[in-house]
């Protein structure tokens, strides 16, 4: 795989973070809208803590929590991604747009790798893959078999301008309780029954009564405790004042990532149309020409059959996906009413909420769960184990994944001891108690396998492997076989490709960090399939990078998988990425006597360049396949010549018109 900006430990920690919900009053929402932000967006750039937190584990030992990030989101009562495990239209469209907008920088850093007779110029990083991976993991749906994407706390936000703020807090608290406990909503999902409610009084410094806000806050501290509420003061300047002062905009890098909620409201579109007389269809959220659905190593037949000169004319117009509705214009400025002191106040609020509210809440619940599990383990579970031993059920019979398909739908009640162990494991993992998390996951895995609850077992296996890797000092080797079993179960038993893909992305990154490039490449290639060209293209490209980064670089495997990736990128409507892959592969085949392979790559580069309105590059590529010593048939050479003349003529007339 290509180099990543984050270390593997940072990547995994950022993939699983404590989730915090937000419920805002209308006046509070209006107050934040002055900055073209809602409240959760206002907090987003400040959600990574810059100082260390401390908490006690069940053994009363102080543990340090470093570099913690929390995720803050508005409460949405309908799921953004189907829990079925099959990515929906909006999900595919988001990921496709993320990859489409992240292209290689002109003059970007490249690695020159020398392997035998080859000097290959290869991109050092693949930011489009990292952007895809980040968006994919952040849009993971909450599942019933795990608690990692469930909300631990809820911020109740009320403006100080309310006539009676405490009454508004009561209404928001009742609303949160109704959403969580009424049974009306399956989303969002909540981690524990007693969700932490944190009361935030939002005060507008530019027009509010500060003395009244302080008075209301004193009353709140009496009602909710100093640890359970906060007075946040913002909007210290008007948008007109200090227009010449340059205030940084930390929100832009977060808000360009389109929210799934806004896309889901658009609904799926069946967009089948014709492009210049040729059928087109939508794949991975991008409109693509049906002519891209050919074999990656297939050359076109003569012009009297579909796919030659007519096809070139058809793809001369590059198809682009319609813009995704973001709800925020690209040119909109954010935080126009905020000063740097306001930024510091927001940062301090996040720190106070996390250190004085969230972490103590998590610590208390870990302790309670531990006490419950210890007492249960001493009574019911020991009795259960003894019963199984007396009546012959000590060991789980060895069965293949295929034999366990009929148990994949098993569900536990919320109060089941097995789920309490999993809940404690997830809590420990989120606050970096990896030793205790591993122990809990390992115990839960045994219980789930005993019950043949394969989805639950796969989840425990996945997180046990990650916890083992993240343990300080790595007391045990990374159990890659846990991940392999989890992927197979997710994919073949539970039919959940979203979870299988998450598992593969995590495991591949760990294997790469241990220089096990061959294992990582094998894993990535296994995850390619016909259901998603975009995912397959990205994983094939990463597999190619694994082959070239091995101690003894496998140059031809690198090139072959780059061609496969280029073909899948093309099918997914990602023309620029397709062209880049073919150009990188060309470095291996050029001048090595593989003339037919060179012809295929040059032909594809010519077509993609012409589609992307790069006529000079297209002419150059087509010219390379018109040689005296060509090994193509005369018919195929004639087809190449006609296409070359068409492109040349188009380029010539274009130059004449632009002079």
Automatic annotation (TrEMBL):
Domain of life of the source: Eukaryota
Annotated gene: TRAPPC8
Organism encoding this protein: Salmo trutta (Brown trout)
UniProt name for this protein: Trafficking protein particle complex subunit 8
Region (Disordered): 261-282
Cited PANTHER family: TRAFFICKING PROTEIN PARTICLE COMPLEX SUBUNIT 8, TRANSPORT PROTEIN TRAPP
Biased composition regions of type Basic and acidic residues, renumbered to the chain: 271-282
GO cellular component: TRAPPIII protein complex
């Amino acid at each position: 795989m290509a180099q990543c900006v984050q270390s593997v430990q940072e990547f995994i920690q950022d993939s699983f973070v404590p989730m915090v919900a937000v419920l805002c009053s209308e006046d509070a929402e209006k107050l934040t809208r002055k900055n073209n932000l809602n409240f959760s967006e206002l907090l987003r750039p400040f959600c990574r803590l810059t100082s260390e937190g401390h908490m006690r584990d069940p053994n009363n030992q102080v543990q340090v929590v470093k570099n913690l990030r929390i995720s803050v989101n508005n409460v949405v009562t309908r799921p953004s991604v189907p829990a079925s495990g099959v990515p929906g239209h909006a999900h595919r469209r988001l990921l496709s747009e993320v990859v489409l907008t992240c292209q290689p920088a002109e003059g970007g850093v490249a690695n020159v790798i020398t392997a035998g007779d080859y000097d290959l110029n290869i991109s050092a990083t693949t930011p489009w893959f990292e952007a895809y991976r980040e968006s994919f993991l952040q849009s993971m749906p909450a599942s019933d078999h795990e608690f990692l994407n469930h909300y631990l706390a809820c911020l109740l936000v009320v403006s100080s301008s309310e006539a009676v703020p405490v009454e508004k807090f009561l209404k928001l608290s009742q609303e949160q309780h109704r959403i969580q406990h009424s049974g009306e909503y399956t989303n969002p999902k909540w981690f524990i029954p007693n969700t932490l409610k944190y009361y935030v009084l939002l005060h507008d410094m530019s027009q509010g009564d500060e003395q009244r806000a302080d008075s209301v806050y004193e009353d709140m501290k009496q009602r909710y405790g100093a640890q359970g509420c906060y007075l946040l003061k913002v909007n210290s300047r008007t948008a007109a004042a200090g227009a010449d002062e340059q205030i940084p905009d930390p929100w832009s890098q977060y808000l360009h990532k389109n929210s799934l909620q806004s896309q889901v409201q658009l609904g799926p579109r069946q967009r089948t149309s014709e492009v210049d007389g040729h059928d087109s269809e939508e794949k991975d959220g991008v409109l693509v020409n049906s002519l891209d659905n050919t074999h990656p190593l297939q050359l076109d037949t003569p012009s009297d059959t579909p796919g030659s000169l007519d096809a070139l004319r058809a793809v001369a117009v590059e198809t682009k996906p319609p813009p995704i509705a973001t709800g925020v214009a690209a040119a909109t400025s954010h935080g126009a009413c905020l000063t740097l002191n306001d930024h510091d106040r927001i940062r301090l609020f996040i720190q106070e909420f996390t250190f004085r509210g969230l972490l103590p809440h998590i610590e208390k619940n870990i302790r309670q769960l531990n006490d419950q599990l210890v007492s249960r383990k001493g009574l019911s579970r020991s009795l259960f184990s003894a019963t199984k031993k007396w009546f012959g059920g000590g060991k789980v019979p060895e069965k293949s994944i295929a034999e366990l398909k009929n148990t994949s739908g098993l569900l536990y009640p919320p109060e089941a001891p097995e789920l309490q162990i999993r809940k404690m494991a997830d809590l420990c993992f989120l606050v970096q108690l990896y030793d205790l998390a591993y122990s809990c996951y390992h115990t839960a895995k045994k219980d789930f396998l005993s019950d043949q609850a394969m989805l639950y077992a796969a989840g425990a296996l996945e997180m046990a492997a990650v916890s083992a890797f993240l343990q300080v000092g790595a007391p045990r080797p990374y159990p890659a076989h846990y991940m392999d079993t989890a992927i197979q179960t997710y994919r073949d038993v539970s039919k959940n490709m979203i979870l299988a893909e998450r598992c593969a992305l995590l495991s591949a990154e760990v294997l790469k960090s241990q220089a096990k490039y061959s294992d990582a490449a094998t894993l990535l290639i296994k995850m390619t399939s016909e259901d998603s060209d975009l995912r397959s293209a990205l994983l094939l490209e990463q597999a190619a990078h694994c082959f070239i980064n091995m101690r003894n670089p496998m140059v031809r495997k690198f090139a072959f998988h780059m061609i496969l990736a280029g073909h899948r990128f093309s099918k997914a409507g990602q023309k620029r990425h397709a062209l880049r892959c073919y150009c990188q592969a060309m470095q291996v085949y050029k001048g090595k006597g593989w003339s037919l392979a060179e012809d295929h790559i040059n032909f594809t580069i010519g077509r993609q360049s012409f589609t992307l309105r790069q006529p000079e590059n297209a002419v150059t590529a087509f010219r390379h396949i018109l040689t005296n010593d060509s090994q193509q048939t005369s018919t195929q050479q004639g087809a190449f010549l006609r296409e070359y003349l068409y492109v040349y003529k188009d380029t010539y007339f274009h130059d004449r018109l632009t002079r």
